[in-house]
Amino acid sequence: MPNAFSDADRLTAFHEAGHAVMAELCGRLLTEVEIVGDREHTGSVQSLAFLPNPDAEAEDIERHLKIVLAGTVAETIISGRQGWDETSEDLDAAVRLGMRLVDDCEDVLPLLQDIGADVKQDLDRHWPAVEMLATELLDRKTLTGSEVRNLLKQHLT
What we know:
The chain has a single domain (7-153), classed as CATH 1.20.58.760. The chain contains six helices and three strands; from the N terminus they run αββααααβα. It has helices at 7-25, 57-79, 89-99, 108-125, 127-140, 145-153; strands at 30-34, 44-47, 142-144. A three-stranded antiparallel beta sheet has the order 2-1-3. The model has no long low-confidence stretch (mean pLDDT 85).
């Protein structure tokens, strides 16, 4: 049976699944993952945000940066295409977060590449979870945080 989903839908599902899996790996409590989108967004991952612990701010920022990078990394894995869409909100967020971790703007790109490589290793290791979640998103369009946690429980232990 032919695939009823467009390439754009499939990329969006893997992008959001990448964010969601990394959020779970980083201990972020998800409230919703969706690929319905609107004119400005093709999908989103919502989570409860807590103020970072001042003593572990760099660690908190790096975890958040991994979550931000995971969408594009998952897209790269599934599509084979490298690089960022220059209009990407994820790229803007990644650069802003990266600037909080380095002193010189010239150090941001190498930082993003290093953390992106770590994210790729994490997603490669947990790729069955990303695939399963992307498939669920294509079928259902929206998942609650508890649904995501229940689906990922068997894959991320």
